[in-house]
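Appendix B. Raw example, untouched.
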Amino acid sequence: MRITGLAALIWCALSLPGWSFEIEEVKRFGMDNADVQLKVLSTADLSVFEPYIIAFQLKNQRIAVDYTVASSTEVMKAIFDEQIQFDLVISSAMDLQTKLANDGFLSDHNSEATRRLPPWARWRDQVIAFTQEPAVIVLSKKAFAGLPIPESRSELIALLREHPERFKGRVGTYDIRTSGLGYLFATQDSRNSESFWPLMEVFGRLDVQLYCCSGAMIDDLISGRLSIAYNVLGSYAERRVAAADNIAIVTPADVTSVMLRTAVIPKNANEPVLAGQFIDFLIDGDLGPETGIGLPRIGISQKTSDAAIRPIRLGPELLVFLDRLRRQNFLANWAGSVEQAIGQ
């Protein structure tokens, strides 16, 4: 089996002095002689998050922002295991952020902006959501020429079983052993969809390609290496549609999980007040036309009548699948379902 995406990132993974967790990208925004430095650790790709930093600096020009990108599991390693000093941590892995709060690693942030959020978008004034992003299926229109576009997991299963030769080695999803977001989506799918485990078994028979992240999956789909990318972040896919008209985005009609991207302030932050100001900006600050397109923010009264939409809510229930024994069992079942691929 070819483990794509994760291997592709090895060349740019690095460790700065005193840090042992793997870093994908680092960039400094602002002047070298800035009055204050805000250190941000994040799972969001630089290309996705740069508009927020630029817009924030336009209003705070004496502030420098050091932005470090790492996977959700490496973010957890940096904060939970190594307790490396960062002022702000942004992650798509809601469960891992919740564990940091539950285990006493975070400081409170309560402001007018956070109080305007719906109660389900913040927990203990420590884990604060600022986006809502669905998990979608991204397809290559060319690969599906002459075939119907599947609208649900059951339809996708039927199509893959009927045309295995067309999709062999061309289906991608997260390696949930290393991707925190992938693990979160998989556990939610297992709770909400009876089709999840049969789908994983079909993926295994088709030599599923395993990835670290949404961006890597989308890259390979656009290049033609993949025909299907499963559980990709919809926000990432939408950003690429305009530049690649060969992409089709499917919001599964049976169950669509919606992730909340969250921000937290570690207890050892040097600039907790500034970190709080940045969180407030993430919630409702104006990006402006100069900075680019941001992620889908949380609406104060945002509701949906679509029964298939399953928002993942913040709270202690997210810790259930982080229990060591339960996690081991889930990963063992997952590996057993896709063992045709993993064993090669």
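End of appendix B.
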